[in-house]
Description:
The chain is of the alpha/beta class. It has helices spanning 15-26, 58-64, 67-72, 87-97, 132-149, 179-187, 206-218, 220-223, 238-248, 260-267, 271-278, 287-293, 300-310; strands spanning 6-10, 30-35, 52-55, 78-81, 103-107, 154-160, 162-164, 190-194, 200-201, 203-205, 227-230, 236-237, 254-258. Helix 1 (15-26) links the parallel strand 1 and strand 2 (30-35). Helix 1 (15-26) packs across helix 7, helix 4 packs parallel to helix 5 and helix 6 packs across helix 9.
Amino acid sequence: MSEQQHVVVVGATGHIGSYLVPRLVRAGHRVTAVSRGTREPYHADAAWEQVETVVADREAEAAAGTFGTRMADLHPDVVVDLVCFTLDQARELVEALRPTGAFLAHCGTIWVHGVADASPLREDDPKEPFGPYGTQKAAIEEFLHAETRSGGLRSTVVHPGHISGPGWPVITPLGNLDPGVWEALATGGELLVPGLGLETMHHVHADDVAQVFELAVARPEVSAGQSFHAVSDRALTVRGFARAAAAWWGREANLRSVTWEEFRAAAGEHAEASWEHLSRSHSASTEKGRELLGYAPGTSLDAARAAVEAMGLLPRT
């Protein structure tokens, strides 16, 4: 058991937090769960009985400049921030926590990498993000690491892939959330694949994301100033994912390659999400997390299947 710390988890009842909070409790930490109080955790766990809860509207309080101070007033040893999406939010929290000597673990995204130039991606590869989400997360990462290097607040950044698992809409083999993709794979229906279908996506079970945070919190002397990918053991190509998923229903995937123009016409509202995921074609390395933290992730297929089972499309294994 690691040394007990007071860990404040912001966004505690979301998909990652629902796994992380019980992990931290079982590791012997005192945990305060901060959320808007609008929903229960995704999964029931007796560990929540030992958790102190704080209701806070992050967006409203950050806009008023009071959120960071409120978190600092909880006297945390560690703050795990799962719902920070802008540089201004990060700055406000860091400035409030700096005098406390707390350790900050921030949730980023593998989208900080933008379009992949090499595979697998490493955490220190040059980053050229695009789109507001990846761009803001990259700016936050740069800010936090500069803060740590300057001798200010110590922090670490965890970059999840496509988060999956029970209770969360899983990205399909076509890189979108179209339920028709699962229907086609389950029934042997034709599935239109843009291009050759060799682009990669890197899924991860939410509990494996929680695992990285737990490990980073337990070893701040190792994780401070570092970024870690939180992804599965291997990425999957569009075709590989589709073929493996069809086998869940005892089917062979019925795939037909089409141009992106044809795909957009057929996919309609789901086409843009496919482009956002597949154009990046991410495959991220877990070597750093394995070596420095002892990270041991599961597979993309297991994470995706758990989500599909929870959707009621497959019998639970």
